[in-house]
Amino acid sequence: RRSALGLHRNAAGNRAGEPGWRHACHVLLYAPLPAGSPPPGYAVLMQLRFDGRFGFPGGLVEPGEESLEAGLHRELLEELGPAAAELRLGPGHHCGARAWPAAGGGSGSDVGLVTHFYIRRLPLEQLVAIERGGPRSPEHGLEVGRVVSGGQQAPGEL
Predict the structure, then answer these.
(1) Of 32, 41, 87, 95, which has the maximum CB count within 10 A?
(2) Could you tell me the fold of the domain covering 3-150?
C-alpha cells in the first residue's frame, strides 16, 4: 500500500500520494459456505453497476478524507446500506494497488488515479445481511442496480 503511493509521478512531478492524484478503493467481500457445499465453497458479494457490468463495492476517496479506509467505508455505506456500518477495514485488508498516471495530451484528465484493492472475509450471516440491505442504500438504483452474491448455496440462504 505504501509503495503504491510512490509508484509514479504525474505531469507536475507529484508522487501518487501528493496533489494531482485521486484514489479509488474497492473490496472483495466473501464468506465461506456451510460444510459440504460444492466448490468453490464461498459466496462473493458483487454489484450490478449502472453500466450493466458486475463490480466490487467501493469508489473514489474524497480529497481530505482521513484515510483510504475511511473513504472506502463511506462508499460502502452509500452503496450497500446500513448493514455495511459494521464493516471494519484496515491496512491489513489492503492487498494491492496500481497507479495510473494522467492521460494528459488534451484527454481532459490531468489527474492520475491510484486504484486500491481490499479483501475481507466475513461470516455468512453478515454477508447475507449486507446483501439484503442493498435496496436500502442511498445509491440503490443510481450507481448500483443490485447487490448480488455468487457461489453455490442452498436456496434462500443468500
Answers:
(1) 87
(2) Nucleoside Triphosphate Pyrophosphohydrolase (3.90.79)
